[in-house]
Amino acid sequence: MSVRSKFLNNPWFILAVLITCFVPVVIDSTVLHMAIPPLTLDLKASGTQVLWMLDIYSLFMAGLLIPMGVLGDKIGHHRLLLSGVLIFAIASLAAGFSEHPMHLIFARILLATGGAMIMPTTLAIIRQTFQSERQRGIALGIWVIFANGGAAIGPLFGGLLIDYFSWRAIFFINIPILLLALPFVAFALPKSISDPTKKWVLKYAILLIVAIIMVVYSIKTIPKLDESLSFGIISGAAGLILLYLFYKLQKGKSDSIVDWTLMKKPRVKYGMLFTFIPMTICSGFELLLSQELQLVHEVSPTKTALYIAPFFFAFALSGALGAYLRRIGILQIIVSGLAISTVSFFVMSQMGFAQLTAALLFWLLMAGFGLGIIMLAASFSIMSGADDENAGAAGSMESIAYEMGVGLGVTFFGVMLSQVFSRTLIFDSVARKMIPKEVYHSINDALVYANEVGGEIGLEIQDKSKLAFENAHSAVLIACSVILLLFTIQMSLKWYKDRKSSQFKIK
């Protein structure tokens, strides 16, 4: 075998190629958060359109991940990865040239399609390439570092690109990275295991996507209590019915796109849960912090990214524990991460974000590290619970939990912020008669209207909306802390009951 062949067949080189393809997909989950203030004013987007721009990517991808994982098992992950890279590059170009909120929303749907092809295939190829559990733990730790690091680098790149170019550059930057990876994907990666006998039915994927989007639309709409309330209720009910229909149509069927046997395994089930939780909180927290810094404290995108970077770098570097997973144990790491995160978010709920003090820096680092080690343990749990033939399905299950977390984190934080914001935004009786209801929906709606109306009323709307948003962050972070505390208690009890079992504790 030649030196070149040895190099190309080296599993760590394969991992490097996979990560190069994967990082733009992760970056696009969070990079748009940094662009919301300039993008809102440039495209004149409403608060609702902003939320759809943010989370349509993750939610649409979540609906496609399971069928794409099955398709990868059927046709080969190498072929699916190549298609995904091409589609993602084309969609990045379309997103960068968007001239209307709906243009960007549809471009993000195309990005999600390409991302859904890339994400589970990287995990599946890692599972098939690294047969040793120790090496697989290290490889997955590196994958987690870059998965979480993409969330860290995304805002930082976004801030720099927006300050020196424009928000459009955050999409254009994907193209040279993917073009660099493309020849290696096409010619250097080994052909992966495939099973042409597997059935693949797209209609179930469409049903799942429609159900998820209808439920999310309901969650976004109902709390506003405006004229769209009835549509929100109908949409939510219809979405839940479609989710139940999806379950009934898929359960026990030979052409099911969900591997229900795999779903029943505790490692996979708990792994999905604890992939979902950190990504929900990370994406929502970044949205909260980036909006407050830019819209309330008028910090530039670059400085905002540098402010948030410690949280995400701690989140990313937690993957270094991958080599020690077997020694420590999955349950122990999950409980530790939950406890650290619970304390960190509660303490931050009592602090202001106007300045990055030493105390705030410490708790940002602790919160990021706590959530990162949860996700690391969850990833190892899922991929260790699958065999080579189901690696694509397992990878898609982790990816769907990841993307659902990103999408629903934006929804959860966005709705909660909106509710607290609307209740703390108070004007005198004269101004109240002049201000439309949309101003109370979000700080984005308030500032867009303030810029349009101008004058003293515009200044008053700006000042009071900023104060209302600043007050809202405490309530949201306390809610996160309570949710994390409940999971900490639950998993601590499970750890206590299963301390003699090897089900999660991998030695």
Helix content class: over 70%
CATH homology superfamily name of the largest domain: MFS general substrate transporter like domains
State the end-to-end distance.
36 Å
Q: Average pLDDT value?
A: 76
Second-tier CATH architecture of the largest domain: Up-down Bundle
Count of individual domains: 2
Helix tally equals: 20
Tell me what portion of residues adopts beta-strand conformation. Answer: under 5%
The number of E-state strands comes to 0
Low-confidence stretches: 1-5, 502-507
The first-level CATH class name of the largest domain = Mainly Alpha
CATH topology of the largest domain: Growth Hormone, Chain: A
Largest sheet: none
> What structural class is derived from the secondary structure elements?
mainly alpha
Helices and strands, in N-to-C order?
HHHHHHHHHHHHHHHHHHHH
- If you compute it from the alpha carbons, what radius of gyration comes out, rounded to the nearest whole angstrom? 22 Å
Characterization of this structure:
It is a single chain. By secondary structure, this protein is mostly helical. The protein folds into two domains: 3-200 and 257-427 and 463-497, MFS general substrate transporter like domains (Growth Hormone, Chain: A, Up-down Bundle); 201-256. It has 20 helices and no strands. It is globular and about 70 Å long. The two termini are 36 Å apart.
